[in-house]
Write a structure and sequence with these properties.
By secondary structure, this protein is an all-alpha fold. This is Putative membrane protein YkvI.
Length: 342
């Protein structure tokens, strides 16, 4: 049970920790100053959301997200949110490609070289086998989380930062709601596909609570570090680079490579989810659909990584607030229906 629970836990963390989160840009967009309570509220709501989604998936023995989505938002809104998931997957690909451009810029290469470096492999991979590359997540994510924690804790110690000095200032608590809501649709999409493979309810508890605790701790330490360099972040598309400049160049290169792989695997998952959903309408090979999808995203990447996150992520956070509310209220509503039944 524990082993399986940890497997789902890393799946949840992998879904959450895309390159937007790992870069620090997503955290700073929603949190920043006076956000300790917001991060605590996020952790609680995230645990509840994961538990509800995984429980529905487990009970319904699902293999894709539509049955879960239908139970949460109702059959009338399922079509709307199905479209929203497709739009989310397309724009996430766009954001990850822009992030690749920003990463290459940090090494003084052309922004468009960075776009090409991620766009070309994204198309080529659909000609060959996907399994090996998608399974990179299980290897890369522990390295990325471990590397992030190492850098952030070292930064906290070296800069003699106090993580509890501003606990009396918590005016930004409401940001927990759009931040949690932002990550709801990909969670439904991913966890809805594994319900058939969950064997026991205990796995659901381990995955939900474990992922929420890890993400809560990492988010709090990361956000506290970003506060200290807030004045410098105007100079960086990727805030993590403002922290990494305090470290040896080898560390900068190592974390940058992990960050780029996180960009690639997130983009790959998004492209795969998008084109596999629309393939039934367009009877052409996956690589051709991938080529069309990637080509369509390229013009939008010119807006830049930080700009895309600044406008798109809050928009998705607001659009998903209804889904988050429905998930948080689902246990109460479901219990009420059962009481009426008896």
């Amino acid at each position: 049970m524990w082993k399986a629970g940890f497997k789902w836990m890393f799946l949840i963390i992998g879904t959450m920790v895309g390159a937007g989160y790992a870069s620090g840009r997503e955290l700073w967009q929603f949190f920043g100053h006076e956000s300790g309570l917001a991060i605590l509220l996020f952790s609680i709501m995230f645990a509840v959301s994961c538990h509800v989604i995984l429980t529905i998936s487990y009970e319904q023995r699902t293999t894709h997200y539509l049955p879960v989505l239908r139970l949460i938002v109702g059959k009338h809104l399922t079509g709307l949110y199905d479209i929203l998931i497709l739009v989310y997957l397309f724009t996430t690909t766009m954001v990850m490609m822009a992030g690749s451009g920003a990463t290459w810029q940090a090494f003084h290469f052309s922004y468009w070289w960075g776009i090409a470096a991620i766009g070309i492999p994204l198309v080529l991979v659909f000609i060959w086998d996907l399994k090996g590359i998608i399974s990179m997540n299980s290897f890369v994510l522990p390295l990325l989380i471990g590397g992030l924690l190492y850098v952030l804790i070292l930064f906290t110690v070296q800069q003699e930062l106090s993580l509890i000095s501003h606990l009396n200032e918590q005016t930004n608590w409401a940001s927990a709601f759009p931040f949690t809501a932002l990550n709801i649709l990909p969670l439904i999409a991913v966890l809805g596909a594994v319900g058939k493979h969950v064997k026991r309810k205990g796995e659901v508890w381990i995955a939900s609570v474990g992922s929420a605790v890890i993400l809560g701790v990492v988010s709090f330490i990361y956000n506290s570090s970003l506060i200290q360099i807030s004045e410098e972040m105007l100079l960086y598309e990727i805030p993590l680079f403002a922290i990494l400049k305090h470290y040896p160049y080898k560390m900068f290169i190592f974390i940058s490579i992990l960050l780029w792989i996180a960009l690639f695997t997130t983009a790959l998952s998004s492209v795969l989810g998008f084109i596999s959903r629309i393939q039934e309408r367009f009877k052409i090979p996956l690589w051709a659909l991938a080529l069309i999808t990637v080509t369509l995203t390229v013009p939008f990447t010119s807006f830049g990584f930080s700009t895309l996150i600044e406008y798109l992520y809050p928009l998705y956070g607001l659009l998903n607030l209804y889904v988050l509310s429905a998930i948080l209220l689902y246990p109460i509503a479901n219990r009420y229906k059962e009481d009426l039944r008896y």
